[in-house]
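Notebook p. 47: complex prediction with calcium ion.
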Amino acid sequence: MKQPSVLVVEDEPAIAELIAVNLRHNGFQPTVAPDSMTAQREIDAVLPDVVLLDWMLPGESGLALARRWRNDARTKGVPIIMLTARGDEADRVAGLDAGADDYMAKPFSTKEMLARIRAVLRRRAPEQSNVTLEIGALKLDTATHRVSYNDQMLKLGPTEFKLLQYLMSHAERVHSRGQLLDKVWGDHVFIEERTVDVHIKRLREALGDAAAMVETVRGAGYRLTAQVAATARG
Ligand code: CA
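Predicted complex, structure tokens below:
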């Protein structure tokens, strides 16, 4: 497994170095940024798995930075742990309101830091890490990238796989073409909505007997449902 990357935004060199050394020692890949401008540059270049963000920074505060990253579609999913000398509840609430996932008051032990980092990684994991999705007889394994129906392997292209993964993660709900474009194709790609129809068609072809599970909801979009499979068989 790849080592999780941690962006450490901390202006005090001694503290930043100590955190970085301890992270490296424990299987993480730290990058240190001493101010918000450097931090922004780092996050623009590579999305880290976790951010440790000092509240008090020269120039723009960690709090403002957290708020900005939360409002940016590209960075909003990155877990943020705020670091601060302040320990009172009002500050803690302000940090969490700004979009931080967790909060650590200085000084903290390496043990506490690692525990909190692992906790936010675990909490964020469902979307990224390995899961098996099962709807009726349809199974999708994100680790092996395999899809099967009634234990028969199906062959899907990468986009159809992502599309199916999204639909199975949010089964029984109707998704508009625009929503699917946003969630499956991502926010940096500009494509037409009818592209979704093309991939839905390919997905149905690949699904074979399970094709009916992908329903067209007129005027609304698409839905993956277990209900159809049940009635078709029963
Ligand atoms: Ca500071």
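Notes: The domain at 5-124 is CATH 3.40.50.2300 (Rossmann fold). The pocket of calcium ion is lined by residues 11-12, 54, 56-57 (CB under 6 Å).
Next step: compare against the earlier run before touching the bench.
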